[in-house]
TrEMBL record:
InterPro entries: ADH-like_N (IPR013154), ER (IPR020843), Quin_OxRdtase/zeta-crystal_CS (IPR002364), YIM1/Zinc_Alcohol_DH_Fams (IPR050700)
Keyword Oxidoreductase: yes
Protein name per Swiss-Prot or TrEMBL: NADP-dependent oxidoreductase
The entry's keywords: Oxidoreductase
């Protein structure tokens, strides 16, 4: 089968190669999916660039990609909930990384049936970002009438998080640049802040929750705009102590500046390292089918142009999700 592989750490164009490799074999609880679409995510190019070297031990060449939608073509002996021909979607666990390929094997425990009312491309756009948004907002007990700022509302995570937070009855502020104002507003945000023209800290303050998807100074600034006892949930800032332990980081200490800010505001600070979860994927399926969540796709690339998809995503300017279509190579 054809697969896009990471051959070494470095620049995207030098490190990614299309290769001909064996189709994966499956055992007991696994299924084999004929991939129709895969999504590109920032973690993919961060891995290529070597930013996750300390966390993930990789033997090159290794497949790239975590998000998949496609059709089940084989099931292991122990699989009860899927049959050949089922249309599914998943964020595959680390050991199955490599969804930008004709086929991917994965444990059926992390897979769900895809939403019936959307294409494979749209279904592939949802797992990683949707699970991240749900898990990060659940960690800080998002609830009705919470005033929440979601940074980067035009990003993959942000565009899902806005819709999810609105469905929970929250009052949603979000940041984006001028060119994205209209479509981000249409996702349901109550106040879209144009960071090119406005100081977001003046518009959104005394908040219950900041969802930090940007990191660096944004993580620290979150404490200026939450109310006393407010919550900061991050997917890019430093891990909290418990998350660091779960991620296997030894002798971890929260940066002193952050610890002081948490104490000063009596705040709750939570880091999320997204975990595959089939129940939450089914929750996403239901929300897509009842139109609570609309997938947001920016560009779709062919498999042959998959490296360009990653180069585009790495500009940091994508408007929603970047998708790689693999249905065409399966048809030829
Ligand atoms: N911990 C985890 O498990 C986890 C899971 C998923 C993602 N992440 C991380 O979370 C981050 C976001 O992921 P993503 O998939 O949403 O990324 P993405 O889709 O690549 O985000 C791109 C968007 O970010 C916006 N943006 C960039 N700078 C901004 C700023 N200063 N203010 C407001 N918006 C800004 C851009 O809009 P403009 O062009 O308008 O600036 C663009 O639309 C990434 O670093 C990713 O690695 C972590």
């Amino acid at each position: 089968m054809k697969a896009l592989q990471i051959t070494k750490y470095g620049e995207i164009k030098d490190s990614l190669k299309i290769a001909e490799i064996d189709t994966p074999k499956i055992s007991g609880s696994e299924i084999l999916i004929a991939v129709k679409a895969a999504a590109a995510n920032p973690i993919d190019y961060k891995i290529v660039q070597g930013h996750l070297k300390d966390l993930l031990q990789l033997d090159f060449p290794v497949g790239i990609g975590y998000d998949v939608s496609g059709e089940v073509v084989k099931v292991g002996d122990e699989v009860k909930n899927f049959k050949v021909g089922d249309e599914v979607f998943a964020r595959v666990p680390q050991e199955y990384m490599g969804t930008v390929a004709e086929f991917v094997a994965v444990d059926s425990k992390v897979v769900a049936h895809k939403p019936d009312n959307v294409t494979f491309e749209k279904a592939a756009s949802l797992p990683l970002t949707g699970l991240t948004a749900i898990q990060a907002l659940e960690k800080v007990n998002l609830k009705k009438d919470d005033r929440v700022l979601i940074h980067a509302g035009s990003g993959g995570v942000g565009s899902f998080a806005i819709q999810y937070a609105k469905s929970k009855g929250a009052i949603v502020y979000t940041t984006t640049s001028t060119k994205n104002l209209d479509w981000v507003k249409a996702l349901g945000a109550d106040r879209v802040i144009d960071y090119k023209k406005e100081d977001y800290k003046e518009v959104a303050n005394n908040l219950d929750i900041v969802f930090d998807t940007l990191g660096d100074d944004y993580t620290f600034e979150a404490f200026d705009i939450i109310k006393e006892g407010g919550r900061v949930t991050t997917i890019v800032g430093p891990p909290d102590a418990q998350s660091a332990e779960q991620m296997g980081i030894e002798n971890y200490e929260l940066p002193e500046k952050l610890a002081k800010l948490i104490e000063k505001k009596s705040a709750k600070y939570q880091y999320t390292w997204m975990q595959p979860n089939a129940n939450q994927l089914t929750e996403i399926k239901v929300m897509v089918e009842d139109r609570t969540i609309r997938p947001t796709i920016d560009l779709v690339y062919s498999f042959e142009d998959a490296i360009k998809a990653y180069e585009y995503l790495a500009t940091g300017r994508a408007q929603g999700k970047v998708i790689i279509n693999l249905a065409e190579i399966l048809e030829n």
